[in-house]
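Colleagues,

For the teaching module next term, I've prepared a clean inverse folding example: a structure given as tokens, and then the sequence designed for it. I'd like students to try predicting residues themselves before seeing the answer, so please don't circulate the second half yet.
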């Protein structure tokens, strides 16, 4: 069955994205992980951007953080909002759940690979890209048929326009008064009198971009 046909046959999940992801986790736990001898720990899952350096990698589809990062001592998983295909979302979730079981201790090394192979994620040399093999993908499609489609539409971050205006910070050397303006406005300043303290102490401090 193609993904297109799956989308036609499946209905949109009636609930939030987080409820969908938790439901998908429960189905993966029952149909895949327990069958392979693994139990998924308590974990929170959300549709959000990855943290830290991972956010700069446009190929990052999901992220799991270790329990030590959480005050509640649980793993947290983020599925990025650029992904909206239901099968791909659950496939990505399965990858991140392996990290949760391992508590991110192995990275994408031997411990991670061992669990991946057991649950049906491929054993490619680049385990950073480990995704569902044929058997697991068939199970994921069955899950989508049963629980419905992921209630989310892709966010296209490449549509964001780059801002080209460069703003300069002007500040007072005597008080806390400051503001940002264009180089043209600075060039047209008739004086350097501070609106805060009234002294002629305004200077161009640093270049800012936003």
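(Answer key — instructors only)
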């Amino acid at each position: 069955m193609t993904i297109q046909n799956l989308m036609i046959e499946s209905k949109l999940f009636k609930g939030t994205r987080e409820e969908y992801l938790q439901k998908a986790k429960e189905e993966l736990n029952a149909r895949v992980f327990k069958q392979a001898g693994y139990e998924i720990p308590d974990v929170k899952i959300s549709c959000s951007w990855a943290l830290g350096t991972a956010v700069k990698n446009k190929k990052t589809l999901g992220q799991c953080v270790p329990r030590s990062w959480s005050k509640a001592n649980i793993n947290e998983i983020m599925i990025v909002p650029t992904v909206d295909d239901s099968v791909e979302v659950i496939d990505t979730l399965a990858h991140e759940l392996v990290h949760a079981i391992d508590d991110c201790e192995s990275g994408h090394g031997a411990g991670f690979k061992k669990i991946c192979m057991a649950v049906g994620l491929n054993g490619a040399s680049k385990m950073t890209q480990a995704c569902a093999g044929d058997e697991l993908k068939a199970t994921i499609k069955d899950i989508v048929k049963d629980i419905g489609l992921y209630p989310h539409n892709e966010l296209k971050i490449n549509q964001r326009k780059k801002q080209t205006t460069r703003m300069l910070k002007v500040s007072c050397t005597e008080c806390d008064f400051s503001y940002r303006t264009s180089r043209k406005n600075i060039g047209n300043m008739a004086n350097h009198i501070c609106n805060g303290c009234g002294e002629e102490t305004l200077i161009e401090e640093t270049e800012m971009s936003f």
